[in-house]
Amino acid sequence: MERVLTMKNKLIANFIYKATDLTYKLLRTFISQEKLEQWKPVHLCWWFIKNRLPVPNYFIAGAVFTPSEDEYRFAEDGTIGSETLLGTQSTSFGRTITADNLIWLRVQIQENGGKAGGVGDDWQLQVQKGALGFNDVNATSTYVKSGAGTPADGDAVSASRLTGGSGTFQAGVYDEVDGQQTNFKLNASVYTEFIWSLTLTYAELTNGDSLTFRVLLNGADTVTHNVTPTLTITKLTPSASLSPSASASASLSPSASLSPSASASASLSPSASLSPSASASQSLSPSASLSPSTSASASLS
């Protein structure tokens, strides 16, 4: 990824470059070319390399192999070159796991110093959980380890899938065995992309863990890390395997055969035969026979 240089940096670079070049032209009449090339009292090459400017040949150290880790992106396991890329380039990605989980990390390495690396250069991926310190990724590493994917270990990464590289693209390498790209010479002023196939170890991770990655060169932290690949873990408990669900309705035995319902009305015995009702009127004896009425008038003598 090309950096935007400030006007101040450009002015300083031009001044230093012209000053050293003028000094060289003045001295080369008296001093041999060989001595001038070896005499480098001022070492500012790091500043030029950092700002991606040409390094003056004299008095300032010449070309130095200067790799940087510039871009990254996670991806699903698949076919190299057509794997499914995840999230956004060079942006932290969140991964949900319910068991050991396979994921790829593609990293772009840029050579900035105008000098090729060595044929025996080894590029080692390291991982850190939280702030616990970086450790090499390999077949037995903690939290994250190398994991077998679809391609074969050592297959070529023949096409770039990340934007921002400067110069021509140099084919990289795929690793799934020990977290290391071995004997890889990065040419001058080019960029490459490595792929690491990784297994996230479920039992050794907790919900919310932050995993950060970096690349070392020959076991030393001499690669400039312009980005830090970051993976955030969401850990879920696997769903329990359920036996066939019991019927919500209880299995009932056949309903009891009910005996014929008793008649709500009581079975009554025949109504009692009532004796003839007593006569309300009292049986009277015959009325007394009255004697003939006495004559009201007195018999006159």
Topology (elements, then pairings):
Elements: H1 7-27, H2 33-38, H3 45-50, E1 67-75, E2 93-97, E3 101-111, E4 123-129, E5 135-136, E6 144-146, E7 156-157, E8 169-170, E9 172-175, E10 180-181, E11 191-200, E12 210-217, E13 224-225, E14 230-235
Parallel strand pairs: 1-13, 2-14, 8-11, 9-11
Antiparallel strand pairs: 1-3, 3-11, 4-5, 4-10, 4-12, 6-11, 7-9, 12-14
% residues in beta strands:
15-25%
CATH superfamily heading of the largest domain = Immunoglobulins
Class per helix and strand makeup: alpha/beta
Distance between the termini: 182 Å
Poorly predicted ranges = 241-301
Shape: elongated
Largest sheet: 8 strands, mixed
Mean pLDDT: 78
What would you report as the Rg, rounded to the nearest angstrom?
53 Å
**Number of distinct beta strands:** 14
Count helical runs: 3
Number of domains: 2
Describe what this molecule looks like in 3D.
The chain has helices at 7-27, 33-38, 45-50; strands at 67-75, 93-97, 101-111, 123-129, 135-136, 144-146, 156-157, 169-170, 172-175, 180-181, 191-200, 210-217, 224-225, 230-235. It starts with 6 loop residues before the first helix and ends in a 66-residue tail after the last strand. Strand 4 (123-129) and strand 5 form a beta hairpin. It is built from 3 helices and 14 strands. The protein is an alpha/beta fold and 301 residues long. It is elongated. 11% of the residues lie in helices and 24% in strands. The longest helix is centred in the first third of the chain and has 21 residues, at 7-27. The chain has 2 domains: 7-50; 67-235, Immunoglobulin-like. Strands 1, 3, 6, 7, 8, 9, 11 and 13 form an 8-stranded mixed beta sheet that branches.
